C-alpha cells in the first residue's frame, strides 16, 4: 500500500519542482527587462510629456508613473503589470503594447512554425541517412548543404530568392503576408492567415497566403535544416556504434529496421530539445527575414520600436519571446519524460 | 562424425588502413559439432572478431576471407547481405558481453524478445507473446508477465543477460556464439547464467562457441578449447586435457594463475616469444 502513495508523492514533488524553477526563470527574465528599462538612457517621462513641458507637468507625470517610489516597489508593480498582460502603451503606435503583440506575434509564429516544419521534415531524414550511409554521396551532399546553410548570409539569400522566384519566375507571392486583394478579407480568428483562411474555407486566400509565406519559410527552414541535420547525424552516429545496434543486427534485422526502429527511437529523445530550441530561435531571430520580406512580425516590430526608442514595446516584445523560450523548454522537458522510459 | 554444424578453414579478417593491412584473424580453422567449444585468448587475439566474421558482421573496411566457411555443408562465406540476414538470428545467434549496452534502452524487454522471434517465425503478436513468455520461463525468470513490460534499465545485470539469452534463443538457432557472456556480471550470478545457458544449449542440441579470457571457466564449462594468440589458433585440445597443454603460451598462461593448493611466493610472468605469432606448434589434426 505504501508504494503508490510514495509514487504519487514523487510525482507531485516533481511537478512542484518544475513549477518552482519555471517561476524563478520567469522572475529572472523580468528582473533583466526591468533593469534594462531603468538603466536605458531614455527618459520615459520625456517620451510622454515631450520636451516643451513645464517642470510641474514633468513632475506630475513622474509621480503618476510611480518613478518616485523605491526600485523594489516599482519592480513588484512591474511584475503585477506583466502578469496581467499590461506592458504599457507603445509610443510609436499609440496602442497598448499587448495589442500590438497580439497583432504581430501570429505572423511570426506562422512563419517560424512553417520554417521549423520544413527544417525538421527534411533535416531529420537527411541527417539519419547521412549517418547510416556515412561517407556516401548523400552524406557528402548533406555536408555541403549544411555548410552553405551555416555560412550564407540570410539577407543575401533572401534577396536572391525574391529576385529569382518572385521577380523572374513569378512562382511565389512577393513581400508581405497577402496580396492586396485578399487584405483583410479573411475573418481573423488566430491571426495566422493560413489557419484563418482554412477556418473560413477560403481557398483563394489560402493559396495566396501560402504563396507569400513559402519563400521566407523555406529560407528559415533551410537554416534550421542545416542545424538539425548536423545534430541528427551526430546523434545517430553515436547510437549506431552502440552495442544494442549489433544486437539488432545479430537478430537478423534489415539495416533499415535497425536504423529507424532501434537507433532512431533513441535519438528522438535529444532531438526534441534541438528542435524546440531551433523553433525558439526562429521566433525571435527572424528579424532580417521579416524586414526583407516586409513581414509584419515580432522581429520587425521589436526592431522598429527599438529604433524609435519605444522601450515599453521593446521590453514587452522581449518578455514575450522569453516566455516562449521558457514554454518551449518546458514542453521539451515534458516530451523528454514521455519518450524516455529511463526518466520515469 | 557426420557433417559438422560449422566448419571453418583458414579464416582471415583483414582491415585495410593507410599504413597497410592489419590482420585481426590470420588463418583460423576449426569445426563445431553439437558441443561446447571454448575460444580463449587475450584481448586483441582475434577471438571476438572470429565470432563476428561467422555472423557476417565484419563491416568495411574489414574484409573476410577463408578457404571454407560452411554451415551444415552450405557455404556462408561472403553471402549477400540479404541471405546472410536470414541466417542471422534464426540459425546462428550471439550473446554479447554487457546487457546494459546490448539491450535497446527505449524498448520494453517483451518487445525486444518478440521482435527477434517474429523476424524469423512470423506470426501474430499473440503467438510471439506466448513464445516470449515461454522463453523467459526457460531462463528461469520469475513473474515473466511483469518482466515483459519492463525496460532494460529496470532489470539487474544477471537478469538482463538471461533476457538476452531468451531473446537470442527464441527463434531456435543451431549455433550460439557467446562473446564473454559473463564478464560484465557479478561473480555471484555468473554460475547461474552459465548453467541456464548450458542447459538450454544442451537440451536443444545446439553448438556453442564460448568466447572468454577465463581459462578456468572454459576448462570447467566446455568440451573442447581453442587457444588463440595474435589472430591464430595456437592450440586445440579437449578441455579436460588443458593441464597437459603443449604450447608454451598455454603453459605460460596456466602457470601464471595463482593456485590455492600450492601457493607460491611469486607468480611467473608470461615470457612472450616472437615465434608464437608465426604459427601453431604443430598443425591441427583434420577431423
UniProtKB/TrEMBL annotation, chain A:
Indicate how the chain sits in the lipid bilayer: Multi-pass membrane protein
Question: Where found in the cell?
Answer: Cell membrane
Q: Which PROSITE patterns match?
A: ABC_TM1
- The principal location of this protein is membrane
Q: Name one Pfam family in it.
A: BPD_transp_1_N
Which family would the database say this protein is a member of? Belongs to the binding-protein-dependent transport system permease family.
Q: What is this protein called?
A: ABC transporter permease
According to its UniProt entry, this protein's organism is Paracoccus onubensis
From TrEMBL, chain B:
The segment(s) forming the ABC transporter domain are 8-255
Give the top-rank taxon of the lineage listed in the UniProt record for this protein.
Bacteria
A GO CC term? plasma membrane
List the GO biological process terms.
Answer: peptide transport; transmembrane transport
Gene Ontology molecular function, alphabetical: ATP binding; ATP hydrolysis activity
State whether keyword Cytoplasm applies.
no
From the record, give the transmembrane residue ranges: none
Per its record, how is this protein called by name? ABC transporter ATP-binding protein
Kindly list the organism's lineage: Bacteria, Pseudomonadati, Pseudomonadota, Alphaproteobacteria, Rhodobacterales
Give UniProt keywords alphabetically: ATP-binding, Cell membrane, Membrane, Nucleotide-binding, Transport
Family membership noted in the UniProt record? Belongs to the ABC transporter superfamily.
Q: Which Pfam families match?
A: ABC_tran, oligo_HPY
Q: Where in the cell is it found?
A: Cell inner membrane
How the protein sits in the membrane? Peripheral membrane protein
Amino acid at each position: 500500500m505504501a508504494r503508490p502513495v510514495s509514487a504519487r508523492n514523487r510525482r507531485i514533488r516533481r511537478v512542484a519542482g518544475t513549477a518552482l524553477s519555471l517561476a524563478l526563470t520567469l522572475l529572472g527574465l523580468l528582473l533583466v527587462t526591468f533593469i534594462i528599462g531603468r538603466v536605458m538612457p531614455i527618459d520615459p517621462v520625456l517620451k510622454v510629456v515631450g520636451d516643451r513641458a513645464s517642470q510641474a507637468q514633468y513632475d506630475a507625470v513622474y509621480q503618476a508613473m510611480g518613478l518616485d517610489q523605491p526600485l523594489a516597489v516599482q519592480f513588484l508593480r512591474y511584475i503585477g503589470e506583466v502578469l496581467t498582460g499590461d506592458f504599457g502603451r507603445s509610443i510609436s503606435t499609440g496602442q497598448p503594447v499587448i495589442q500590438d503583440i497580439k497583432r504581430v506575434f501570429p505572423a511570426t509564429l506562422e512563419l517560424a512554425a512553417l520554417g521549423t516544419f520544413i527544417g525538421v521534415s527534411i533535416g531529420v531524414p537527411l541527417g539519419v541517412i547521412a549517418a547510416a550511409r556515412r561517407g556516401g554521396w548523400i552524406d557528402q551532399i548533406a555536408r555541403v548543404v549544411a555548410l552553405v546553410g551555416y555560412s550564407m548570409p540570410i539577407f543575401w539569400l533572401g534577396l536572391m530568392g525574391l529576385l529569382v522566384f518572385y521577380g523572374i519566375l513569378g512562382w511565389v507571392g512577393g513581400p508581405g503576408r497577402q496580396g492586396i486583394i485578399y487584405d483583410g478579407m479573411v475573418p481573423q480568428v488566430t491571426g495566422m492567415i493560413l489557419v484563418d483562411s482554412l477556418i473560413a474555407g477560403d481557398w483563394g486566400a489560402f493559396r495566396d497566403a501560402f504563396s507569400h509565406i513559402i519563400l521566407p519559410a523555406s529560407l528559415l527552414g533551410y537554416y534550421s535544416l542545416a542545424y538539425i541535420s548536423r545534430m541528427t547525424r551526430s546523434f545517430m552516429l553515436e547510437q549506431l556504434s552502440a552495442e544494442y545496434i549489433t544486437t539488432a543486427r545479430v537478430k537478423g534485422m534489415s539495416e533499415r529496421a535497425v536504423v529507424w526502429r532501434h537507433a532512431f527511437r533513441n535519438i528522438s529523445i535529444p532531438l526534441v530539445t534541438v528542435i524546440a530550441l531551433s523553433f525558439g530561435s526562429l521566433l525571435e531571430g527572424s528579424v532580417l527575414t521579416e524586414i526583407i520580406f516586409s513581414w509584419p512580425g515580432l522581429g520587425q516590430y521589436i526592431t522598429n520600436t527599438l529604433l524609435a526608442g519605444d522601450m515599453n514595446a521593446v521590453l514587452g516584445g522581449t518578455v514575450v519571446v522569453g516566455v516562449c523560450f521558457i514554454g518551449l523548454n518546458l514542453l521539451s522537458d515534458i516530451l523528454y519524460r514521455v519518450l524516455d522510459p529511463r526518466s520515469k | 562424425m557426420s557433417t559438422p554444424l560449422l566448419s571453418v578453414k583458414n579464416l582471415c579478417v583483414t582491415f585495410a588502413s593507410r599504413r597497410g593491412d592489419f590482420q585481426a584473424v590470420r588463418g583460423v580453422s576449426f569445426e563445431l559439432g553439437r558441443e561446447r567449444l571454448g575460444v580463449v585468448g587475450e584481448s586483441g587475439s582475434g577471438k571476438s572478431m572470429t565470432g563476428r566474421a561467422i555472423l557476417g558482421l565484419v563491416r568495411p573496411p574489414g574484409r573476410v576471407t577463408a578457404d571454407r566457411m560452411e554451415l551444415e555443408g552450405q557455404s556462408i562465406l561472403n553471402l549477400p547481405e540479404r541471405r546472410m540476414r536470414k541466417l542471422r538470428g534464426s540459425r546462428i545467434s550471439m550473446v554479447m558481453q554487457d546487457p546494459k549496452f546490448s539491450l535497446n534502452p527505449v524498448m520494453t524487454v517483451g518487445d525486444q524478445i518478440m521482435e527477434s522471434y517474429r523476424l524469423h517465425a512470423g506470426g501474430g503478436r499473440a503467438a510471439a507473446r506466448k513464445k516470449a513468455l515461454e522463453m523467459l520461463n526457460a531462463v528461469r525468470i520469475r513473474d515473466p508477465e511483469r518482466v515483459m513490460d519492463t525496460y532494460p534499465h529496470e532489470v539487474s545485470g544477471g537478469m538482463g543477460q538471461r533476457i538476452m539469452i531468451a531473446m537470442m534463443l527464441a527463434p531456435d538457432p543451431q549455433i550460439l556464439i557467446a562473446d564473454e557472456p559473463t564478464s560484465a556480471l557479478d561473480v555471484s550470478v555468473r554460475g547461474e547464467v552459465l548453467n541456464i545457458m548450458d542447459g538450454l544449449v544442451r537440451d536443444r542440441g545446439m553448438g556453442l562457441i564460448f568466447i572468454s579470457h577465463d581459462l578456468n571457466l572454459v576448462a570447467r564449462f566446455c568440451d573442447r578449447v581453442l587457444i588463440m594468440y595474435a589472430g591464430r589458433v595456437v592450440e586445440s585440445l579437449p578441455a579436460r586435457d588443458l593441464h597437459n597443454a603443449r604450447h608454451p603460451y598455454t603453459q605460460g598462461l596456466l602457470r601464471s594463475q595463482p593456485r590455492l593448493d600450492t601457493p607460491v611466493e611469486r607468480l611467473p610472468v608470461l615470457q612472450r616469444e616472437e615465434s608464437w605469432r608465426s604459427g601453431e606448434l604443430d598443425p591441427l589434426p583434420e577431423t
